[in-house]
Design a protein that fits this description.
heterodimer, A: about 250 residues, alpha/beta, Rossmann fold, eight-stranded mixed beta sheet, 9 helices, 10 strands, about 20% strand, disordered C terminus, B: about 450 residues, alpha+beta, Dna Ligase, domain 1, six-stranded antiparallel beta barrel, four-stranded antiparallel beta sheet
């Protein structure tokens, strides 16, 4: 099979260009085979920059995106540095996503420039489990710096993209050096047999993944340990037509 | 007034002999205490303290926050204090004593405007000269500043104009900083003034090494370091760094100090460099846990110090739970390196990941007393409530404020058609008017 050897050769050359052996890099698994299977390496790469944004109103409040990031950070080891420009996180919710208050050190930077400097310092430091930063603007140059800092120390970098106005969210289309890019939008919660609000559900879109393919998943929000889950209906493999119909009507 | 007359007027009046020397000593001690606000502090005899806050105010959250902190500290000790921040010692001296407010903040460059209406007494002039000026018809600083200089110098000597210039910043007025006796301090005097950043950095390293050796001898660790540069033009430049726990590591301390060197303006050169640990705590040798047992969690105090010194101590923190059902009060900020007791919040009810700084009014339609709303309008958008959970009743904390004795909030978690989830509450229990206004508010957004 000549084609395969050509492809393998090309892959090897690309890897050499990238400088680091992607296969040797450690990953953080979601614990959901459907998601892990779509990511190169079988999970979220540690020592890399990942972007998360909210969909719809979530682009402004970033409520679901913050919880998604908290859930990922909760499953790493060590302290978490969480950089914000202005604090409006409600800490009990972060604790409910599995991130104990004793593990998170918050940095209230005041402005975007300081925030990015703190973000990079946290990544370069190396002793942290993950660094989360709520940023609005992320240029190619800045994201490249962050990506290199993360690569150097092996720390997981999570950029929660959040904008002042809905219209500015178009910025999310701009290219950056991040390894994956996610969008989290809220969906109606799991129906309960009694009146009430069930476990929250999200539409998780993997918009960009380096050396991987895009995908979207319907998931149930983080539990007390920061783990996502597939809704029961999908786990039983009967919801696929339902999802397809929903997308057709949109 | 004779003492006997005063005693006749106020029964039980306590009389003490004046003790100027004792007062001066007490003021010096107070100045040492005030070192917590800035490295450059001196007693401004007989009744004040002067603090050069340049480059130190950001550690307290800005000038206004710093002033408030000073006022609060004194108020806690039942003392009344007057503080002012201005461009110069003279202006701050005048504003604190004569502006008539407990807290004065003179904006940079507004000194002349702020001083213009103050009486002549604000200029620190001898009583005789003040009287003569008054006779000549001058009553405010502004009157005097508008006059031609030469006749004033001829009539009153150079002191009057010098005081004016000092107040307006035309002439510098250096502060001779106080030092307490048991301070760990090292200094280096240069034969030739130095100014190049690399040279400054090299000597910072040497001073830090000396200081660390001295700290080691005393088994102490520094919590706060002040690095003072005395310039050839008789001005001071200062760097202050703080650490989250007692620190004696040469590499860390040097890095923290070097990080701030670029904020120093050496002018024509630096003659003397002084490095002092103005706040030190005992730090003995401790055993390192063997890695055989389990991987120890990495120590992040180094990073915390770096960030805290760059953006301010108060802006690096952790959240800790407080036993309160009122959401705004259930969270407190603690120091990032404070002991983690593993406490967390009750996990009974889901909490929103974003809490609005202030609950926002929403228009709703809801059945009383305990039904969730059918729809609500927030920020101009009307949403139909599809599902809801609640009410979660939160009672006012009567032990905190009298007005909260009867108040009630009923929290609901609601979900609209699109699946967006919000935390809304009604002020009041839906039945009794004394429990609240029965208006609805949105307090948070769930993820």
């Amino acid at each position: 099979m000549p084609d395969h050897s050509v492809l393998a050769d090309l892959r090897e050359r690309v890897q050499r260009l990238e400088g680091k052996d992607m296969r040797a890099r450690q990953v953080l698994q979601f614990g959901v085979p459907e998601i892990d299977g779509r990511l190169p390496g079988g999970g979220l790469a540690l020592g890399a920059l990942h972007e998360v944004a909210g969909g719809g109103n979530g682009a402004v409040d970033g409520a679901a995106a913050a919880l998604f990031a908290a859930g990922i950070a909760a499953r790493t080891k060590g302290k978490i540095l969480w950089c914000v420009t202005r604090q409006d996180l409600f800490a009990p919710a972060i604790a409910q996503a599995g991130l104990a208050p004793g593990r998170v050190i918050f940095v209230e930077a005041g402005d975007e420039k300081t925030l990015l400097a703190c973000f990079e310092d946290g990544l370069r430091y190396g002793g942290l489990g993950a660094v989360v930063a709520e940023v609005a603007k992320l240029s190619m140059t800045v994201s490249r710096r962050l990506q290199l800092a993360a690569e150097g120390s092996g720390t997981l970098a999570l950029a929660v993209r959040r904008w002042r106005r809905q219209t500015e969210a178009a910025d999310f289309g701009q290219p950056t050096a991040s390894v994956t890019r996610w969008r989290v939008s809220v969906l109606p919660s799991r129906p309960l047999p009694v009146p009430g609000v069930g476990r929250a559900r999200w539409l998780l879109e993997l918009i960009r993944s380096r050396a991987g393919e895009c995908a979207d998943f319907e998931v149930e929000a983080c539990d007390g340990k920061g783990r996502l889950a597939l809704p029961a209906a999908v786990a039983d493999r009967s919801a696929a037509p339902q999802v397809a119909r929903k997308r057709a009507t949109r | 007034m004779p003492a006997t007359k005063a005693q006749a007027l106020v029964p039980g009046l306590a009389l003490l002999d004046a003790d100027p020397a004792g007062d001066a000593d007490a003021l010096d001690r107070l100045a040492v205490w005030a070192l917590r606000f800035s490295p450059l502090v001196a007693a401004d005899q007989p009744d004040g303290i002067v603090v050069d806050t340049t480059g130190a105010d950001h550690l307290h959250g800005g000038e206004e926050a710093m002033l408030r902190a000073i006022v609060d500290r004194f108020a806690a000790a039942n003392l009344e204090v007057r503080v002012a921040v201005a461009d110069t010692w003279g202006a701050a001296h005048a504003a604190a004593r004569h502006a008539g407010a407990a807290m004065v903040l003179v904006e940079p460059g507004r000194t002349e405007h702020a001083l213009a209406r103050l009486p002549l007494a604000a200029l620190r002039l001898p009583g005789r000269m003040r009287h003569d000026l008054h006779v000549l018809g001058f009553s405010t600083v502004g009157d005097l500043a508008a006059q031609p200089r030469a006749p004033l110098v001829q009539r009153f000597g150079p002191q009057l104009v010098r005081r004016l210039d000092q107040a307006f910043g035309a002439v510098s007025e250096p502060i001779e900083p106080v030092r307490s006796a048991d301070l760990v301090e090292v200094r280096r005097v240069f034969g030739e003034p130095i100014a190049a950043p690399e040279t400054l950095r090299r000597y910072v390293g040497k001073l830090a090494a000396e200081l660390v050796a001295e700290l080691e001898r005393r088994a102490m660790g520094a919590r706060r370091l002040d690095l003072l540069f005395s310039r050839v033009d008789n001005r001071w430049e200062a760097i202050r760094i703080g650490t989250a726990k007692p620190e004696r590591d040469l590499r860390r301390l040097t890095r923290l100090l070097s990080d701030r060197i670029e904020t120093i303006d050496p002018g024509f050169g630096v003659e003397v460099m002084t490095l002092a640990a103005t706040h030190a705590q005992p730090l003995g040798a401790s055993q390192v846990v063997s890695s055989l047992v389990e991987e120890p969690e990495a120590d992040v105090s180094d990073l915390v110090d770096l960030l805290a010194n760059r953006i301010g101590e108060r802006r690096v923190y952790r959240f800790a739970p407080v036993a309160s059902d009122v959401p705004e009060r259930s969270v407190s900020r603690v120091e990032p390196m404070s002991l983690d007791d593993g406490a967390s919040w009750d996990d009974h009810w889901p909490r929103p990941s974003r809490l609005l700084a202030r609950p926002e009014r929403v228009e709703t339609m809801a059945l009383l007393p305990d039904h969730p709303p059918v729809w609500f309008t927030w920020r101009g958008q009307r949403r139909r409530v599809r599902r809801a959970d609640g009410p979660e009743r939160v009672f006012g904390e009567w032990w905190k404020r009298e007005a909260e004795a009867t108040t009630v909030r009923d929290y609901f978690r609601v979900e609209d058609d699109a699946g967006e989830r919000f935390w809304i509450f009604r002020a009041g229990d839906g039945e009794h008017p004394e429990t609240g206004s029965h208006k609805w508010y949105l307090h948070g957004v769930f993820g």
